[in-house]
């Protein structure tokens, strides 16, 4: 969904695309995103056959992913720094809970741990923020982390940063010790999208982890 990948701390008010909250939401004509759940999420949930439970979508934007999960029967929560986006999320779905907050300092407000934690195109900066997110996953739960494909970003001329600036899924896989996590999916996938800021991105780097039960 992004258009520019700048150096963004995980606690930033900026969205993953490098636009500030004001430019992305206040200045947009209508909704910034398509209003549909992320294509890769809609493919992964039936593939993984995860039992319904609690879910947390980090960087939930205007709420489409959390709303979709709630419609399936998940007890869905979305965490999003933009107050405007949170308002739009609440208008979209009354079945999901949306919290205005940042990573990592507001994660404890979300009520975890969760059976499913998702993060799509979010600016995770550094290993500490990643580990804070990983701690939200319950034993036996899943963590889905997706970003735009690196080769596609290079082809579009985006600046590529180190993991201390923007942690990509393939880097994050290195931070998942095999004794604690099972790597379920670790690949690049094509995605379908119509409308919204990210319509020009067609490849996702996808990481799905399952926390081993103690």
Automatic annotation (TrEMBL):
Which SUPFAM superfamilies does the record cross-reference, listed alphabetically?
S-adenosyl-L-methionine-dependent methyltransferases
- Span of domain Methyltransferase: 56-139
Compositionally biased, Polar residues: which spans? 1-10
Highest taxon of the lineage: Bacteria
Q: Provide the residue span(s) of the region labelled Disordered.
A: 1-23
Q: Which Gene3D superfamilies match?
A: Vaccinia Virus protein VP39 (3.40.50.150)
Renumbered to this chain, the Basic and acidic residues biased-composition regions fall at 12-23
- This protein is called what? Methyltransferase domain-containing protein
